[in-house]
Amino acid sequence: MQKSHDEQNKALRILDLYLKIPQDAAERVMRFWRVRTQAAAAATQKSKRELKSINEAKSATA
Questions:
Q1: Residue in 21, 41, 17, 38 with CA at minimum distance from that of residue 29
Q2: With 80 as the cut, is the pLDDT of residue 52 above it?
Q3: Can you say whether the dihedral through the CA atoms of 30, 36, 37, 38 is positive or negative?
Q4: Top-confidence residue, 56 or 40
Q5: Is 0.90 surpassed by the pTM of this model?
Q6: Residue 57, Cα to own-chain centre: how many angstroms?
Q7: Is the dihedral of CA 45, 48, 53, 54 positive or negative?
Q8: CA dihedral defined by 51, 57, 58, 61, rounded to 10 degrees?
């Protein structure tokens, strides 16, 4: 029973912190992570294309 009470208190503290975050700050953080995710995906695609190009060049010379 004590663990459940402690978990509930922890959840309430987290909720309280969540409610204190200004909306513009939350939106700014979400934009940051969205852009970061898109940039990482683009970099991954670029790396895959470069590796494919290298492999094709190796195959052509073999």
A1: 21
A2: yes
A3: positive
A4: 40
A5: no
A6: 34
A7: positive
A8: 180
